[in-house]
Specification:
Chain A is mainly α. Chain A has 7 helices and no strands. In chain A, helix 1 packs across helix 6, helix 2 crosses helix 6 and helix 5 crosses helix 6. Chain B: Belongs to the HAD-like hydrolase superfamily. CbbY/CbbZ/Gph/YieH family.
């Protein structure tokens, strides 16, 4: 098994949807929105973001011997929140980017339009 | 299968704005990227969370009647209504304007020009629409929003107001929108025929609009 970009994005969107108190859209709609938004980013931004996402996915292998996207929901949430509070700017920025897009994907109209 | 529309039998053609006169998904993706950049810059998701709460509030208000709609829509727990209003105007009304023209629905300009010869064109929108209409390079004789009538779609108040202004009847009015549960339902409640984007047509170059003049 290797780090998996799409599975990681889906797992982050799932985590954000579970954490939100009143999501209107579903996690599936949010992850579809995040993946579509990622595809629409300028070409120069996608490779570094993809690489950072794969590093994020592989990070739990050090302590838990499994990828982020294979973690149970509670562990995923702990990992996301640890990265949101990280002292490393790029780690915080990566999580803010994904959480922000996931939240947008959970908005009423966006849930419908994808 | 194409629907035959008897264009000559209508006086008033009412358009919804968001999702009907421009393509929403690509614009939303660009706005989401801008919001993500703002969140990273500010190290805070507060703008995103405020807008998300406002959208949920508006969706909930669509199913309820509120007497002070214009104020109540900005009343969110833990937020100053003025601050919510400023954030909404900035991110949902002003910033998208510069990008709107790029996403105008194909055929909209030609259709508006043709329809304006023999029909009154109106906009019926849940959100502010005048500036968006100008940004799209379109013009309409009448424009009504949820704030003007204090009701969100599918309440037909805006549609009824437009028919009164145009001195016409439901039989001589056509509503064109993109959400059957909002635009279509408002039209049904007002006794007006509706065309729904995505169900009845994809864009304004479709054959259904060929004889509109």
């Amino acid at each position: 098994m290797l780090p998996d970009f799409d599975a990681t994005v889906r797992a982050i969107a799932d985590t954000v949807a579970l954490r939100e108190q009143r999501p209107v859209g579903t996690a599936g709609q949010a992850s579809a929105f995040v993946l579509a938004s990622f595809a629409g980013l300028p070409g120069y931004l996608r490779p570094p973001l993809r690489a950072a996402t794969l590093i994020f996915d592989a990070w739990p292998v050090i302590g838990q011997r499994t990828y982020f996207h294979d973690l149970p929901p509670e562990e995923r949430r702990r990992t996301v929140e640890a990265w949101e509070r990280s002292f490393l700017g790029p780690a915080r920025m990566l999580m803010t980017f994904y959480v922000s897009l996931s939240l947008f994907g959970l908005w009423p109209d966006d849930a419908r339009h994808g | 299968m194409s629907i035959a529309i008897p264009w000559d039998s209508f006086d008033l053609i009412v358009f919804d704005m968001d999702g009907t006169l421009y393509d929403q998904p690509p614009l939303r993706r660009r706005m989401a990227a801008l919001l993500a950049r703002e969140a990273i810059r500010q190290r805070s998701l507060s703008v995103m969370r405020t807008l998300a709460a406002f959208r949920r509030q508006r969706e909930a208000m669509a199913n309820a009647v509120t007497n002070d709609f214009a104020v109540a829509q900005y009343r969110l727990p833990g937020h100053s209504p003025d601050a919510v209003r400023a954030t909404v105007i900035d991110w949902m009304e002003q910033r998208p304007l510069a990008m709107l023209r790029e996403y105008r629905t194909p055929g909209a300009g030609t259709l508006f020009t043709r329809l304006a010869r023999n029909h009154a064109i109106a906009i019926f929108s849940d959100y502010a629409a005048q500036a968006k209409l100008a940004a799209l390079g379109l013009s309409a004789r009448y424009c009504v929003t949820a704030e003007d009538v204090g009701r969100l779609k599918p309440d037909p108040a805006g549609l009824l107001w437009l028919m009164e202004q145009a001195k016409t009847t439901p039989q001589r009015t056509l509503m064109i929108g993109d959400r059957d549960e909002r635009d279509g339902e408002a039209a049904r409640r007002a006794g007006v025929r509706a065309l729904i984007r995505g169900r009845d047509f994809r864009h304004f170059d479709d054959p259904i609009f060929r004889h509109a003049s």
